[in-house]
Design a protein that fits this description.
single chain; 434 Repressor (Amino-terminal Domain); 89 residues
Length: 89
């Protein structure tokens, strides 16, 4: 994990964003952030400097097409199962 509290969120967020081929700014804007702060906020989330509130997590989940549980999954194998489940829906 790349942050100080050990949360998997920053790593999972970056993985999902890259899988969708979005820049930090694009993702932030699509999730409803002001275009002037979108890139900086997403960068802070991906570095684990700040954590988004749950409303923002839901918006990110919807934009990226991943279940919210994916962001908080510690185990790689379980994260893959979650993504496989989402793909089968």
């Amino acid at each position: 994990m790349n942050n100080t509290d050990g949360s998997p969120f920053p790593t999972r967020l970056k993985q999902a964003r890259i899988m969708r081929g979005l820049s930090q700014k694009q993702l932030g804007i699509l999730a409803g952030m002001d275009r002037f702060v979108a890139s900086a906020r997403m960068n802070q989330y991906e570095r684990g400097v700040h954590a988004p509130d749950f409303k923002t997590v839901i918006a990110l989940s919807q934009v990226l097409g991943v279940p919210t549980a994916y962001f908080y999954c510690l185990e790689e194998e379980l994260a893959s199962v979650i993504m496989d489940w989402k793909a089968s829906c």
